[in-house]
Amino acid sequence: MSLAIPAMARWLVRQEAGSIPPRIRRIALHSLIDTLGVISAGGRTRVAAHARLLVQGDGAAGTCGLAGSDQRTQARHAALVNAVAAHALDFDDNCYAGFVHGSAVIVPAALAVAQQIDADGQALLTALVVGAECQYTLGLASDNRLYRRGWWSSGILGPIGACAAAAWLLRLDAQQAAHALGLAAASAAGIKAGFGTDAKALLAGRAAEAGVMAAWLAQAGATGPIDAFEHRHGVAHLFNDDHFDGSVFSALGQRWTLEDPGLDVKRIPVCLSSHAAVDVVVELIAAHGVRSEEILAIRCDVPPIVIANLIHDRPQTPQQAQFSMPFAIAAAVLHGGPRLQDLEAARLAQADMIALMARVSMCSSTQWQNPARQQQAPEGAEVCIQLSDGRQLHGRRDAPRGAAREPLTPEQRREKFLECLRYGGVDEHIANERLAQLEGMEALTGVRTLFPFST
C-alpha cells in the first residue's frame, strides 16, 4: 500500500477547476463565505489583536489582508492572524472526518497565498477543495482516535490541509508537494488542554502558518519526511495508537469528504458539543411557552466526548463560556442565543445568568456506550426540562441545526455572514456588497480585493 503523503501529493497536483464537480465547488464557496464572515467578527477579539501585534512588529509589508486591520502583510503572517480570528469565537465549521475545524485553518492559508500570488477566484476555490479533501481524508484514516485521546485534531491535521491548498496554488510538482506535506506533518501539534484559553485560537493560527511555510520551503528545495504518518516515530504511532487506514486515499476525488460526511456550520458561537442540547431546549421552550422562572432544572444526557469538551460548569471568562453547557443553555433560555453579544464578561456576571446556569447539568447514560449510537449522534443530546408545576419536558436531537445532515438555509447563511460583519464593525451597505462579491467568486479575476472588508 502506498504511503499517505505521496498519494495525496500525486492527487493534488492533477487537480484543475474542471476536475471538481460543481456541487463540491458550491460547498467550498459556502465554506469560504462563512469563514470570512467569522474572521471579520473574530478580528475584534483580544486574541486576534495579540496575533496582529506579533506580525506587525515584524514590519514586513505585503499584499495579504489582515483581520481587524486595513494593513497588508506577507502570506505567512496573514495566514496566522486570520486563522486566529477565524477560530477565536468558535463560530467556524467542523467536519467529523477527523473531528476537525478545517475551514478556520485552510481558508486563511489559501486566501493568503492566493492574495500573495494574485490568483483568481476560481483558483482560490479549487485550492480550498484540495486542502479540505486532503485534510479530511487524513481524518478518515485516523478514525478520530487522536481526538478522543486528547490531542486537538485541528492542530495535528490542520497544517496538512493548509499546506495542500498552498502547494496547489504554488503549482508544486508531485515531489515538491510530498516534501511540503511531510514538512507540514512534522510540525503537527495541539492538545485539548488549551480549550477555554487563547491557546486554541493561536494553535489554529500556527497550523495555517505552518502549512504555508511548508509549501514555500518545499518550493525552494527543502525536504520533509514523506512517511510522516507511517514512520515508527510518526503521527500514527505517536498520536493515534498506531491506527491508520491508508486505504482511504485511493478514494480521493471519488468520495468527496466535503459532501460525505460534510461540514457542520455553526448557528451559534460556542463549541459544537453544546449545539444539539441548545436546539432541543429552544424547541421545547417554544413549543410549551416556558418562562425562565418556571425552570427548576435542565438535565442533558450526552455522549462522553461532550462532557470531555464542555469542562466549564461555572465559566468566568467568555472563552470558558464557549466550552460550557450551562452557559450555552442559559443564554438560549434568557436571550435566545448564545449570540456574539453574549460572549462578554458582563453577561456572565448577570444574576439571572448565574442562577440559571446552576440549574443545568450533564450526564452520560449507558446508551452512549453503544458505538452505533455514538456514530449516529457523535455530539447528540437527550434533554429533560423540569418545571415548577411538576411537568417534565423531554426532547432529543442527534445533530443540531446547521449540521451537514440538516444544513442552514441560504437565508440563515446570509444572516450569519451579515451578523458577523456587523459585529466586526462593517457598515451594512458594505457588508451586502462584499457578500455579493463573494457569491460571484468564480468570475473574480483577482482575490486581493476580497479581504479585508473595509469599514
From TrEMBL:
Residues 269-426 form the MmgE/PrpD C-terminal domain. It comes from the Bacteria. Coiled coil: none annotated. This is 2-methylcitrate dehydratase PrpD. Pfam families: MmgE_PrpD_C, MmgE_PrpD_N. Belongs to the PrpD family. InterPro entries: MmgE/PrpD_sf (IPR036148), MmgE/PrpD_sf_1 (IPR042183), MmgE/PrpD_sf_2 (IPR042188), MmgE_PrpD (IPR005656), MmgE_PrpD_C (IPR045337), MmgE_PrpD_N (IPR045336). Residues 8-242 form the MmgE/PrpD N-terminal domain. Transmembrane segments: none annotated.
